[in-house]
Design a protein that fits this description.
By secondary structure, the protein is α/β, with parallel strands linked by helices. Helices cover about 30% and strands about 15% of the residues. It has one domain: TIM Barrel (Alpha-Beta Barrel), CATH 3.20.20.190. The termini are far apart.
Length: about 250
């Protein structure tokens, strides 16, 4: 199985950077994850009103920034002025939203792997897939380790495939509809990333039989990690970067 024997990504990926210890989807969160030894990260990417890829999970601004309203209705100049840290804790007040190019620079400088979740704002699925993939292809030109492009939205992944067919893709799933495996194959994915509750040895075996890797989100308990590892999982996305040692599969600090 070519996709698995050459799987280049770390077993453990820090969710939204280290999005519990620091403001999610910010460079501060990446630095927190790196401080705990993580060399692989997951983050969410969407587009500003003027087409700039930047990191954010929600379609609206108010949960994780000082702004309000839909992020897709704000230009990057407007977004760049927001405080994306104070909501988390006073220590991070003034932390800005990062553009994708700033995150790429940080990861490339340190040799970190990246799972880019394409997170389109409603109505922007195709455009977001196209722009994010094209920008990622530009930023990682010539690099041996390319970012893994994932999304729950098949339209965004299909658009990413057209824009940058060489970038590896993963289908994100929070349920297993009848055609889940075929959908991933049709999108020429190298991996499927599932909610951990969907995964057992049978499901993981089916993914492997289709020559794709299996990843789970969001794995924060040692017993769950051990169960998934015993079932053959290839990647674990976690918030618990201060408790899981990334170089020891199920080592958890007291």
């Amino acid at each position: 199985m070519t996709a698995l024997t050459s799987w280049p990504y770390p077993l453990w990926l820090a969710h939204r950077g280290a999005g519990k210890l620091a403001p999610e989807n910010t460079l501060a969160a990446f630095r927190a994850g790196a401080h705990h030894g993580y060399r692989g990260f997951e983050c969410d990417v969407k587009l500003s009103a003027d087409g700039v890829p930047f990191l954010m999970h929600d379609a609206t601004l108010q949960r994780t920034t000082s702004g309000h309203g839909a992020s897709a209705e704000h230009t990057w100049d407007q977004l760049s002025r927001l405080d994306a840290g104070a909501w988390h804790s006073p220590a991070f007040a003034g932390e800005p939203l990062p553009r994708l190019d700033a995150v790429a620079q940080y990861c490339l400088e340190h040799g970190f792997a990246l799972n880019l979740e394409i997170k389109p704002s409603p109505g922007h699925e195709t455009e977001t897939g196209r722009v994010v993939a094209a920008e990622a292809a530009r930023l990682w030109t010539g690099q041996a380790l390319q970012p893994l492009m994932s999304s729950f939205d098949a339209r965004a992944l299909a658009s990413a495939r057209l824009a940058a067919p060489h970038l590896p893709r993963a289908l994100l799933l929070d349920q297993l509809p009848a055609a889940w495996l075929q959908q991933a194959l049709d999108l020429q994915c190298v991996a499927i990333v599932c909610a951990h509750s969907l995964l057992d040895a049978d499901v993981i075996g089916r993914i492997h039989a289709a020559e794709m890797a299996s990843l789970a989100y969001t794995v924060n308990e040692a017993g769950l990690a051990r169960r998934l590892l015993d079932a053959g999982i290839d990647g674990l996305i976690t918030d618990a970067v201060d408790r899981f040692a990334p170089d020891v599969p199920t080592s958890v600090s007291p």
